[in-house]
Design brief:
heterodimer, A: 264 residues, alpha/beta, six-stranded mixed beta sheet, three-stranded antiparallel beta sheet, 8 helices, 9 strands, globular, disordered C terminus, B: 434 residues, mainly alpha, disordered N terminus
Chain lengths: 264, 434
Amino acid sequence: MTTIISMRNLSKQFNTKDGTVVHALDNITLDVQQGEFISLIGPSGCGKSTLLRVIADLVEPTSGDIRVNDKTPRQARQDRDYGFVFQNATLYDWRTVIRNVELPLEIMNYSREQRTQRAKEMLSLVELAGFEDKYPWQLSGGMQQRVSIARALAFQPRLLLMDEPFGALDEMTRERMNNELLRIWTDMKEMSVIFVTHSIAEAVYLSTRVVVLSPRPGRIAQIIDIDLPQPRTPETRDMDAYFHLTSRVRYALRGHMANHGFDE
Amino acid sequence: MADVAQDLNAPPGLLRTMTVSVVAAPPPPQRLGRDALAALLLFVIMVTWHIQNPVLQFETQFGSAFRNATLQPVMALLLALTIVIWVGNPARWRQSPLKMGASLALIAYTLYMMAAIIFRVNLIGVVLNIDAAVFSERLSADTARDGLDAHAAITGIFAAVAVLIVVAGWRPWGRFALYGAAIRQNLSPLIVAALVLVLWEGLIIAFEIEAFLLPRPSVIAGAFAETYPRLVSAGWNTFQNALWGFIFGCGAGIVTGIFAARFTAFSRALLPVAIMINAVPIIALAPIFNNWFGALNAASKIAIVAVLAYFPTMISTIKGLTSVDALSLELMRSYAATPLVVFRKLRVPNALPYIFSALKVATTLSMIAAIVSEYFGGSTAGLGYKIRDDAGLFKYPDAWASIVMASLFGIVFYLTVSAVERASMRWHPSFREK
């Protein structure tokens, strides 16, 4: 297996306006293998989004080493090695659905035919064929987020970074989106996913490994291997092993909640 | 989404069809855009028929309204533009020979009018063997009028055919339900407008208010009907100043706005000063601009309009280009997009709503500035001069009629910019159609 991301003693401090220093990340050491589905879970303010942004080179670490595809994060970003899915769909209102999906392809100078073809493929992958010419406001929240996933996958990156992509959806839609994401991850062979969430059920159901982070300073509290059988189906949620693993994640989270109080 | 989500285990195909049914929109409501276009088209057909014939142009009231030399080619171009939009996609002509014939007849009418009005080559006049000089000079008592009436009749038939074709394509009799709905939707403002006019008329009669203080609406309407040929010409002269000032002022505002948004240090230094200058009642500088650019010169009027239109446009451009959603910017960063790409694909579309609302404000400001600048001397051909002159001679109903004409030009200017806005921002929530 090839290591796609390697982090060594990664730390990030923010200086706030009132002069205090926030230790968002402290001494993070983690390797991600190709094809893995890793969830970063933790209470809000534990730095999980910051860690994702460090990988994406949207934030620079204060100290420590990080390699993405054996390159600096900046180089990886410039080579368009990853697709990023934000918490909000972040679609451009003035573009139709298909033109939103084509956006990265336009920037990367794909030909018009390639753009249309690829965008159509991606839209049918996220079950949105037929919605090409709609505008974002004409879609529901879940559909908008699917468009943003199609956009992130359009240029076939080997790495997908997702920052609480389903956080704003209701529980029903979220479970359906989880199934779709798993199907896409299986379809896109050898794609690695880093998935930030604060839902235990979601993390266990989706991941091959769950990284539990503790807040202030953001540290890795525990890494839990999720050895549930693949492919995961809605029945997976009824398995004893599933309950056992969600409990383990919950205890790992709670341990640190106890240390820090419930002030989150 | 609720009923979609009930069955989580449904196969994806089923989910999709269910989602479609949830989102399926009601049929798009019909719009009045086509009616406005048809009305405009009928109007310019009548106008061009009147201005290409000296008899109609000089001896009818409607024709003399369009005697202004710079207004005539604009009317011919407006005819061409509306015909192009009306006739539309030539691929659709093949549907029937009737449609194709009708479209070609309209195009022939347009080409004839453009040749006659813009290039002064009146083809029907040539056929009738009328001296070409008649078409380019003002009619006088001793002008040879041979054939001019026959020419008016023949072109009249041509224009009537064009009108019939447009009306047959428009079919307003099938759209009464639409008009009814439009009136019902705007019933309250219509009632208020009617009430204001009735009250205005009634109060002046009841309290015997002197006509020079405030004429009755019916008197103003009478003055308007009597003098509108002069008012159209005067309004057009003033509007040209407003338009050029608008183009220069807003153009400069957008360019400096782009520059300032790109170099934030520059905008941080510039913006407070710009906002301060914007607070200066710039119209008060009109006499000084007369001094700079020459009172008799249109440049002094255009300059005052440009300065007035400049600041709101610049400030809105900076605001629109810089108030971009942080996540949208991060998305661009994740694609390693160059600043130029971010500008073109994110900042400009984001700024369009801001810029257009500034432009719409600028249309009104431009008309105000163009009229008021004429109060301080200069050209005697504009509406501002006419309002001042009529008021000085106690011809208040005429002054009011000029104000009505100024408002009409202002409204048309505003609606034109709105139409451009609508066409370039179909995606915007305020224009949601589907």
